[in-house]
């Protein structure tokens, strides 16, 4: 028994990799359709956007790179589509050097799905180096960090941007990121210029931003694929997050089962080793 | 002089910006806006310097045929090709620059990140042991939060997401806030040390000093 458990504890990790692969692939092919409950931090983001009057300016900073696309793209798409459906004026940008491609893809795809016109309903500003300087610059005048949009058109030549100056004209800033950039938005945009900030982050980063929720420095928080699935449900556009929930449920369960079995085996082996020594 | 001048500029700008923050005069605001513009320009040049530096490191590795020089060659070729197609054909969707991004960079980075799931599962099985009281607490908290973050947790019991929320809202928040206050105080202290010239490591080595 002891030898068997010892072997089990030292099993080739490729068996675990195989189980994980099955746990991801099978639910994606045959969806289970597990129910998604709505949590307060996600509902708060939804309500903050949903309560805005038509034509309000919203900044969506897509501060993520290709590595976190599977987790953050679904929430970016759901938020963008929500804003477009509410006929809000959407300004998108990114503060990550590898972000422009991702941000442009998300913005253009959602705008096309909701039949929105560039320059009138939304603009894409692209990337500008210097996180804090860019956030502070927008607080003074968006033309300081972004005199032109991503395509080289002067901001003043875009019909939507006529009359827009800074955070005073902005109802909310939504930052989607797998990094600590949302903390900079809180520190520089919210604290200095008092604009509302909401955030969407990867699951591993979510715990870092709970203090900002409790203080009211963030109006809401979307955490990981689960948060994205909740937002998709609220907006009524079930997408990749909703499908991914089944796979994530199975993988989380698998990891928990592995931890429990690993601990049981470890303690049995340890006990028998002690008895053997005794 | 090579050290004194940067130290003087740093102290002058640091003190000026602190004072400026408390003076809402139009001249002060104009100065602040100009500084932000300059900040972005300097950061852009720092970015270019960073690219030059990384290119030099890899070039040295290739020219001296050091260990794994081939990977450095791949990095240099990738950098050159991406720069060339970006400048030559533009960076809009459908152009070679974006094709490289969509069909090479996106799948590669996503794959690297996805591999985490496999390694986390394996590492959790091998190392996550309830050896001590603290480790047991961590393990229980991790299991509850993991279950609370997926629909299956809600299906098992509606209390699991609630307990998971409590863990994030109370113990996690208390610990994070403590860390954040510590980091904040540390940042202020470091900022003052740099402005006053006590901390000089940012100068690097100038003229062998």
UniProtKB/TrEMBL annotation, chain A:
Keyword entries, A-Z: Membrane, Transmembrane, Transmembrane helix
Top-rank taxon, per record: Bacteria
Residues passing through the membrane, by range: 15-34, 250-269
Name of the protein this chain belongs to: Uncharacterized protein
From TrEMBL, chain B:
Regions crossing the membrane: 5-23, 35-57, 69-91, 111-128, 135-157, 177-196
Keywords on record: Membrane, Transmembrane, Transmembrane helix
Protein name: Uncharacterized protein
Species per Swiss-Prot/TrEMBL record: Candidatus Coatesbacteria bacterium 4484_99
